[in-house]
Amino acid sequence: MNPTAPLEAVFASTRQVMANIQADQMQEATPCASWNVGEVINHVIGAQDFWVAGMTGTPPSGESQNWAEGDYLAAYDQATSAALAAFQEDGALQKMVALPFGEMPGGAVMGLAMNDTFTHGWDLAKATGQDTNLAPEIAQAILGQAQQNIQEGFRGEDGQAPFGQAQDCPEGACAADQLAAFLGRQV
To answer: How far apart are CA 1 and CA 13, in angstroms?
Structure first.
């Protein structure tokens, strides 16, 4: 099996959500209290530069751009292609990668990229009235990883910590909704 296939599926899932966003939805609120739809789009695209920088050992470009005002799908495609290439380099998933918050294997960095991209795809779907039952098998896998790896020390207020406090989720909710609730979103 292709070790980056789950990442490719995450990128495709989030791209599909982004393709259904209308220009007049950019200012809509999202489950990320501090970001609107356009700001989440900008984060998702900009985060790919962060993953590439970590995987290649180069500093992030630091480029702050408002991709949501332009052809954000083309920008997303370019950014995710670069990220995918970085994770597909020989030995990339086994090597130790230094990130600002610690050192970890490249496979763990890929897991972070998957969680971040997928969860923000869910945020965009929820904010724009789309179906949130995204990529059920991938959502279940990311949920399992999150439940194993996210410790209470990583939880706090929006903008203060990477994840909010786990929220209640309706019984029988899809895996993507369960993941969102686990990461602190109201579903």
So the answer is: 19
CB atoms within 10 A of CB 179: 29
- Integer Cα distance of 129 and 154 in angstroms: 29
Q: Is the dihedral of CA 12, 120, 51, 165 positive or negative?
A: negative
Distance CA 41, CA 71 (A): 11
User: Distance between CA 65 and CA 165 in Å, rounded?
Assistant: 30
Is residue 20 within 8 Å of 31, Cβ to Cβ?
no
Sequential pLDDT tens for the chain (187 residues) = 799 999 999 999 999 999 999 999 999 999 988 899 999 999 999 999 999 999 999 887 766 789 999 999 999 999 999 999 999 999 999 999 998 888 999 999 999 999 999 999 999 999 999 999 999 999 999 999 999 988 888 888 877 777 888 999 999 999 999 999 999 999 9
Extended strands (E) in the chain: 96-99, 102-105
> Looking at the domain 5-182, which fold is it?
Four Helix Bundle (Hemerythrin (Met), subunit A) (1.20.120)
The backbone torsions φ and ψ at residue 118, rounded to the nearest 5 degrees and listed phi first, read -65, -45
Q: Which two tokens stand for residue 29?
A: 């609120």
The model's pTM: 0.94
3-state secondary structure at position 97: strand
**Look-up: residue for tokens 């990220």?**
83
